[in-house]
Amino acid sequence: MNQSIASDTSPEPRQHRPFYRDLTFQVLAGMALGVAVGALAPNVGKALMPLGDIFIRLIQMVVGLIIFCTVTHGIASVRDLGKVGRIAIKAMVYFEIVTSIALVIGLITINVLKPGIGMHVDPAKLHAAVTSGKAAAAAPEGVGAFLVNLVPKSAVDAFAQGEILQILVFSVLFACGLASLGEKAQPVLRVVDAVSQTLFWIIRMVMKIAPIAAFGSIAFTVAQFGLASLIPLGALIGEFLLTCVLFFALVLGPISLYAGFNLLKLMSYIREELVLVLGTSSSESVFPQLTAKLTKLGVDQSVVGMVLPTAYSFNHDGTCLYFAAVAVFLAQATGTALGWEQQLGLLAILLLTSKGGAGVSGSAIAVLTMTLAATKTIPVGSIYLILGIHRVLSAFFVFTNIAGNCVATIVVGKWEKAVDRGQLKRELDAGYQAA
Predict the structure, then answer these.
(1) Tens-place pLDDT, residues 346-399
(2) For residue 81, with 0-12 CB atoms within 10 Å meaning exposed, 13-18 middle and 19 or more buried, which class applies?
(3) 22-434 adopts what CATH topology?
(4) What's the predicted TM-score (pTM) here?
């Protein structure tokens, strides 16, 4: 994630748009229409499944390259072995710890509440078009076989087969190679940046047909599994909202106190950006504003310039909550046995694959699809069940991502003694009073 990408993605101001042009309204309208069609005309509803398949494939088409560009730019941009390198290491340690905690919270909450139990979805009735026609091979047995499978036979093969872990391994190695070149790598990074902007444009265009995809997926779900299938989906939305609230209360709140500021005052200070991402489900649109506001809070510009863009690529607290919750929900819904050992293995893989989730609405579901394919346990076709409500879930996890990234920037600034404490307090107090 980088500023040049983010600066080109600001949506049309919400106050200047008619309500019917808002994507969230369109998705909800599509879902309502899909429920009606699935209930009143089941045969038609079952025939609408390709609408969702096309949507998933369009996103899946570019997600491998998005992961490559995001990871490559994030790592290769860190070239200074002095202050910049020190900040990057501290930031990455923070990101790994907090995202790991997020995954654990997500797994515990979904296992306790079990919203998918009782859905009784037969995996054989789900069309696995999202697997791109590739039969799922048996999962490699043993640690050695798993480690061998991380390394692609060729870089091209990893992208062609959609092997997300292999893409990540190649991306990290390629990025490290670029970082070693110093200034010589700048032309390549500019190309990576241009490719990233192109891919993000594709994703934004694909998201315009999200209402049609939601209509098709909900119509099929209701037609195939009945109106009762909507109850677990509603329960999943409630469970995920509760999970996000718990993450704020149990993780971000205490971290904020440790860093010497009030989380509620920070959220009030960035309230306009938080409201915007709730509507757009995209964190890109607020990157420039957050950069300016964090600098105004008294965080050193060098810290903001390093930590915030890196956080956009590597610190996806809300996305990790989403991955953990939805993956286990799909296992519950399809009756897939998933013990704690398997869930911990899933957690380990998600720690890697979550780094490929870009700040663009729609990429998370593609990354989740490829993660399920990598685990070869949960039916990949089950992704279809949550396609209709993904937009609602994404609003929650992008909101959480933004708040988490701002907290991370201030915390790393504290570690670097690069925060003006007086200015931080004055700005937060003023923002809170203005609200």
Answers:
(1) 777 777 766 655 445 556 777 787 778 767 788 877 887 887 788 788 889 989
(2) exposed
(3) Proton glutamate symport protein (1.10.3860)
(4) 0.69
